[in-house]
Specification:
Layout lengths: L8 E4 L5 E7 L6 E2 L6 E2 L5 E6 L14 E3 L1 H6 L5
Antiparallel strand pairs: 1-2, 2-5, 3-4, 5-6
C-alpha cells in the first residue's frame, strides 16, 4: 500500500466487529465497494479494511481485505 497509505488502526466495522483499517489517497485499480456494490475507481481515495479476528479462528488477515468508499465505511453501510 506504500507511501499513500495511512498506518493501520483498529476501527469498529459495520457488522460490529473490529477491523484493521487503512485510508488510502489513491486506488491503483478498480475495486467493488462491499457497502454499496459500486466501483471504487482508480485514483480515488478510499478505505481498506480487514477483520482482526475471523470466525472459527480461520486465518484470513490481509487476504480478507476489502476496499470501501470512504463515505460508505464512515456511514457504516453493511456488506451485502
Amino acid at each position: 500500500m506504500g507511501a499513500l497509505a495511512s498506518v493501520a488502526r483498529t476501527e469498529r466495522g459495520p457488522d460490529g466487529a473490529d477491523y484493521q483499517v487503512r485510508y488510502l489517497r489513491s486506488a491503483a485499480k478498480e475495486y467493488t465497494c462491499p457497502g454499496c456494490l459500486r466501483p471504487v475507481r482508480p485514483g480515488s481515495a478510499h478505505v481498506v479494511a480487514w477483520p482482526e479476528e475471523t470466525p472459527f479462528g480461520l486465518p484470513q488477515g490481509v487476504g480478507a481485505r476489502r476496499h470501501w468508499h470512504t463515505e460508505c465505511w464512515r456511514r457504516g453501510l453493511r456488506p451485502t
